[in-house]
Amino acid sequence: MKIFRFYTETLMPIPQEDAWDFFSIAANLEKITPPKVKFETLTRLGNIRIYNGMKINYRLRPLLNMPLRWETEIRGVQPPNQFMDKQFKGP
Question: Once rounded to an integer, what is the mean pLDDT over residues 43-53?
Answer without folding.
Answer: 90
